């Protein structure tokens, strides 16, 4: 396989993000709160606002978009914590390291921005997702919340946190 590259999209690249986001919603509707129909109808102003709200990371192989993730604020009570969300990899590239590259890019960006931790919410009963995050170095916290989407894997999410520097303590989420 060719090399995986990850780059951050700018606001002016909203159409690229829209295309990949819609592909994710179409291919894995059960993984997202929004639906393809809802987001397909949004106009340019919506997409540009979304681009400004969080960082959008795009994984590519030979110029083909093969994955996406977003990096945003964990919340007002956690100013040193960034949150990784919306992670999706095209089916024919799963298991090829794309998700790891996206997570690494998110961690690197958060670290450059002065963040001490990266949070990633995972369904508590989704063993492969928990194992992936754990293998990357994320550790479970006491923070739980109801799933925002219906899932056969359970109805609760756990915040897993990756320390980005010397501070190995767990932040409050």
Structural description of this entry:
This protein has helices at 14-27, 36-40, 44-53, 98-112, 127-136, and strands spanning 4-9, 55-61, 64-73, 81-89, 117-123, 139-146, 156-163. By secondary structure, it is of the alpha+beta class. The protein has a 7-stranded mixed beta sheet, sandwiched between helices. A hairpin with a 7-residue loop joins strand 3 and strand 4 (81-89). The longest helix has 15 residues, at 98-112.
Which descriptors would you attach to this protein?
173 residues, globular, 5 helices, 31% helix, alpha+beta
Topology pattern, helix = H, strand = E: EHHHEEEHEHEE
Q: Summarize the amount of helix as a percent range.
A: 25-40%
Output the structural class. Answer: alpha+beta
User: Rounded to an integer, what's the Rg over CA atoms?
Assistant: 16 Å
The tally of strands reads: 7
Strand order of the largest sheet: 1-2-3-4-5-7-6
Assembly level: single chain
Our measurement of the CA-to-CA distance between the termini, rounded to an integer number of angstroms, reads 38 Å
Shape: globular
**Relative strand content:** 25-35%
What is the mean pLDDT? 92
Low-confidence stretches: none
Reported for the largest beta sheet, the result is: 7 strands, mixed
Report the total helices.
5
